[in-house]
Specification:
Low-confidence stretches of chain A: 537-542
Number of strands of chain A: 25
Oligomer: homodimer
Distance between the termini of chain A: 70 Å
């Protein structure tokens, strides 16, 4: 091989920090904290990052040691991201919304040695402390003089540690393949699984999300990071926004607080914002109720779940804010596709999950593994490949979710159109196989939600002697209204094929959700089976 | 080391091609050719790329073999870029404007085995043929039935070869460090030197130039590539525009033809365009003379030489087109900095060479190698480092232009301001050291050009017993006007410090230029020395 003669400078998070500190020293990071709105610039941020690096060095950890965070989106969490990764340790962000038993499992499985914890989560950690096998240092993230309840654990105080540490530090030279961050999937099936990101994958993914057709980040933008920093590194925004000198607005624990988001959008001049549909739905309602404008807001990135037509139309038509639907997974750093259709583009096209960003390869295959055409109609199992896609899970057998050619199996069923625009049809474990054909539970749920009284809908497949499986629809109504099944069925029949119509429509007061807020169909199936066995309250609608 | 567990998918030009073909199959490439305007889409382009790959495979070359092109910006050159690199060979773009002896040197030094040559350059190659030691196959790039003058060499015809080759081809799996392209510097000092780009450096550089604050490429844009594909890979636009699905407009040999560029901008809906200042100056004049609008043109990227205030003001104020000044070198793939100041920003700031793009590190040092502050005032030797910066020249001793720490020495003197915005003061070999201080030959030339009768100016340092060096100014006037030295000196004294005023002002009919159109100060110094020795026509102005 004739090797190119260019420098082999490694792609590291340290390079991101160094670049930003030299080129964007006065760029601001604004955070909502327990003590109010905090504001500083990147120069100050990285001075504190170096103080934290000195603190961590004192612990005498080995390179690659895991340091966990249980924290909201604020400047201290930002500092932890950089100090940990650039010191050669692994920044393990833990989702505090998980069940305590999952958090315990994750911390022990990762063998975290240091815990950085928002004051709000101190009681949670205290309750787990007896089960934690590897943690040697507990650090609470709070103001210097913040009141502190009596505790059993020997908590170190973050601000006290930083105040006592020098602001100069020489970061180690790192290999770009070195691990830099760790995130666990929420684990609806089995135990949570860890994805171990490398410096290389993180930098490449950051490059990709900065691109104009992805998030479009530059120093002329102000980004509101309304997706948690404990969830897939807030979609890499802390890295990518830093790399491009984009002002960052971190809403602390308030990302579900629409009034706070609206205030931040106005007062900080936010131009783009990233978050899940529920965040944007509540913001949309708030904007309508208060008749507020959206200030400089130009676009929102909607990911984590499907974007509804109501959400897209609301922002685009009423507020002239472009909606960009994005799709990804923890295993993909997370970004796989972005829909960069322009504002007011055809809604059907706009609600697709989007085109793969360069670096991510997609394919769809049938159940025999044969590749399917990109015609927008053929649906199959979606597989992905690329430099920021998980190769194997942390401390798991290699083949857990990969085919024999090394493609990652997303667990989704999707179509891809001739322009490479992908649309998720369903999760492969949720799709209903009826008479050799597929019924999309998601499409059926969306159709049900078009019925005015339906607040939430969930469709599961139940075994059927003749058709293998048939759909059953569970619905939750607005404000205790009783839904007439025949009326809902009539509505559905105008939107889906007749053989898709559910065999039963069951109204319940609420539906089960996972710790991250997704419909828990595994639990719903168990409930449905239990209901059948007890032969009780299963209304029959046929 | 704990290694991250993400896929190690290599960064290759092949991945760029594969992505574009799947996601942007209908994106157009429009070319100006000898036979008129040619238009096709990426799907057709890559089908022809595979045909060409089959043709090349028949030659039985080794991986890493060099294949040279002598060609303008059109679809065939585009096909050569991808077919050569993705086949595992090295695409060696040769600048046909170089002196024939330099072209001969370069082709022999690179040991090119195949030559792809625009019909226009066939006579040039014929004239060199006897001296070419390694070339085994000569291919002429022209229409199928194009007339062809009688020649001595056994020319193969590109279109005939493609017509006879299959359109399917399995490209090899390449290592990302494999060489993919080769470009020689124009070599004002000594022989031209080759820069051997890797697949990795090319992909990373492409990522960087796509960023919003660099060129801002996406499928919503239409780019006019008015910088030659034989010069630093047209600033990587053929890769980056392909990667993002940006429609490409390739002006063939007409990039100096302002009427053609204006026509292309209108008829193809160009939104951004990249080129050197002389291209934009002539376009500006044309637009003014014809009172044409600029259509959808949003911004121009100006690089290769300093952008004048007249150029920036003309486009921004008269035509509302944003000017982005960029700086780079063949050794940097080429991009190092971009000035992304918004339209109508302060002109002084806008004319700086810009902020480093992420990946490129800059530093300025004094003559003792001590790093200088980024205060916008201290000027020093500019050094660069990064994953798309040359580590060593092709087949040259390692240390040719690198310091002992591996930084590349650009040969420029620059300042950097607190926001990381770099400004070139002068070439280090052109700056005039007078009494322990520096005089910028560029600043003095710019001051001279502000005098209405001056068409071009060149300043060189000449030895001086007391001050070490003193500046001498050479000027060329408009339309044979005789310039009064005292009047020009009066004008200069309003713009530069009195000790900067040249010791002599010499009017000449023309100034020497390099093959790439830059002022050849080496030749001017030789001319000046010869003039002094012959004690003839050196006017004294003191």
């Amino acid at each position: 091989m004739l090797t190119g003669q260019m420098m082999t400078t490694p792609l590291t998070v340290t390079a991101v920090m160094r670049h930003a500190e030299r080129v964007f020293p006065t760029t601001e990071i604004v955070s909502i904290t327990a003590a109010g709105r905090h504001r500083y610039c990147l120069r100050e941020a990285f001075a504190r990052v170096r103080r934290l690096a000195n603190v961590l060095q004192e612990f005498g950890l080995q390179p690659g040691a895991r340091i966990a965070t249980l924290a909201w989106n604020d400047h201290r969490h930002f500092e932890a991201y950089f100090a940990i990764s650039c010191s050669g340790y692994v920044c393990h962000t833990v989702n505090p919304r998980l069940f305590p038993a999952q958090i315990e499992y994750i911390l022990n499985h990762a063998e975290d040695e240091v815990l950085l914890v928002d004051a709000a989560f101190v009681p949670l950690v205290e309750s787990l402390a007896a089960q934690l096998k590897s943690v040697r240092h507990f650090i609470v993230l709070a103001e210097e003089g913040a009141a502190f309840p009596p505790t059993r654990l020997p908590w170190l105080r973050y601000e006290t540690l930083l105040a006592g540490a020098p602001s100069s530090f020489t970061f180690p030279q790192l290999h770009e393949e070195a691990a830099c961050a760790l995130a666990y999937t929420s684990g609806t099936t089995g135990d949570p699984k860890g994805v171990l990101y490398s410096h290389r994958s993180t930098v490449l993914h950051s490059f990709a999300i900065c691109m104009p057709a992805a998030f479009g980040l530059s120093s002329h933008e102000v980004v509101l990071t309304a997706v948690p920093m404990f969830h897939v590194n807030a979609w890499s925004l802390p890295y990518a926004a830093t790399l491009t000198g984009c002002k960052q607005v971190l809403p602390g624990s308030k990302m579900g607080d629409a009034a706070m988001l609206a205030d931040l959008i106005h007062s900080e001049g936010v131009t783009l914002a990233a978050g899940v549909p529920t965040v944007w739905s509540s913001l949309l309602t708030h904007l309508r109720n208060t008749k507020m404008s959206v200030g400089r807001l130009d676009r929102i990135i909607v990911g984590g779940a499907a974007c509804s037509s109501a959400l897209a139309e609301g922002f685009e038509r009423e507020f002239n804010v472009t909606v960009r639907h994005a799709w990804g997974m923890t295993e993909m750093s997370p970004l796989g596709t972005v829909n960069s259709a322009p504002r007011h583009a055809d809604l059907k096209q706009k609600l697709k999950q989007g085109q793969p960003i360069f670096g991510v390869e997609l394919k769809i295959v049938d159940s025999a593994g044969r590749e399917l055409p990109w015609n927008g109609v053929s649906s199959g199992f979606l597989k992905v490949r690329g430099p920021w896609v998980c190769r194997e899970y942390f401390r798991q057998p290699k083949s857990l979710a990969h085919d024999t050619s090394g493609w990652f199996e997303t667990g989704d069923i999707a179509t891809i159109d001739p322009q490479g625009c992908m649309q998720i049809v369903d999760r492969s474990k949720d799709i209903i196989k009826s008479g050799g054909e597929w019924i999309s539970s998601i499409d059926l749920e969306n159709a049900a939600c078009a019925y005015p009284d339906v607040r939430e809908a969930a469709v599961i497949g139940v075994p059927h002697a003749k058709w293998d499986e048939r759909p059953v629809l569970y619905v939750v109504a607005h404000h205790g209204v009783m839904i007439a099944p025949h009326s809902l069925r009539e509505c559905l029949s105008q939107r889906v094929a007749s053989w898709w119509l559910p065999d039963a429509i069951i109204q319940v007061d609420s539906l089960p959700h996972t710790a991250t807020g997704k419909l828990d169909k595994k639990a719903l199936r168990a409930f449905h089976r239990a209901s059948l066995q007890s032969e009780t309250a299963v209304p029959q609608d046929k």
